[in-house]
Design a protein that fits this description.
single chain; 74 residues; mainly beta; 57% strand; elongated
Length: 74
């Protein structure tokens, strides 16, 4: 059974490279396969980017948060 997930907050910044103020918008794309979520962003420069996501998950009382560090080549 796939839980219902609502992504309500995203942030993509270059904090790992010491540039937290360097951000870019993140667009939550329509869900394709159940349980697979696509995000779209324009990564304007190479380096390390931090993606933060907050979501409400059916059956979970608290907000679920996650963070991923991405290495981007120019």
């Amino acid at each position: 059974v796939i839980a219902v997930v609502v992504i309500f907050a995203t942030r993509l910044d270059m904090a790992p490279d010491g540039m937290e103020a360097m951000t870019t918008p993140v667009e939550v794309m329509p869900e394709g396969e159940p349980g697979i979520y696509h995000l779209k962003a324009d990564l304007v420069m190479g380096g390390k980017w931090r993606l933060q996501v907050a979501a409400k998950v059916q059956g979970e009382a608290e907000t679920v948060v996650g963070e991923l560090i991405l290495g981007v080549q120019p």
